[in-house]
Design goal:
This protein is α+β, with helices and mostly antiparallel strands. Helix content is 26%, strand content 40%.
Length: 197
Amino acid sequence: MPSILLVIGFTYHLGFYVNFEIGIDIAPPVLGKQMERTVHPSRLKPMLLAFVLFLVGTSMGPALASEVNAIPILPTENGGLYIPAMIDSRIESELLIDTGSSYVVLTATTFERVSEQTKSNFSRFIYGAMANGKVERVSLFWLGTLQLSENCILRNIEVAILPNADKDILGLNALTLLAPFSISLSPAVLSSQSCST
């Protein structure tokens, strides 16, 4: 499993879409001739890339398997998965894992607590589509650290402040830093090989 996750992670970071199709066309039989197998030249590059990534994942997977960080998850009755987190080493929160959110999101209440105890640096404004379909201007700030477990600390994370949000969210800009990762429900953990400390 670590090897497969590693391959997926590499293909994600390289930004390539790898065609894992075998790419072998079988010509229709012709009387008196054997069937010919041909590989179209346009398929050689993705096939070669997939093969190289497979070899790298196979050789490096066992070495990296011992470095996996297990981040605890708190499942809820409604199916939500939350990760207990410490913001800037002072503020405790529980972040909902949400791949539909581009950014880590803090509620106004959480951000107020953060601002009272730490220095929050303004980053920029963006315009985002809300769940209700409206487009609103959103403020982004920098967090110094976002600690997800004892051995998993993400640094310099941009967070969006949504006044009407009712929960803090672990969005894609943080999840991308954890890739490759896997989620297990028994036990409930997010396993990542990319946490920085």
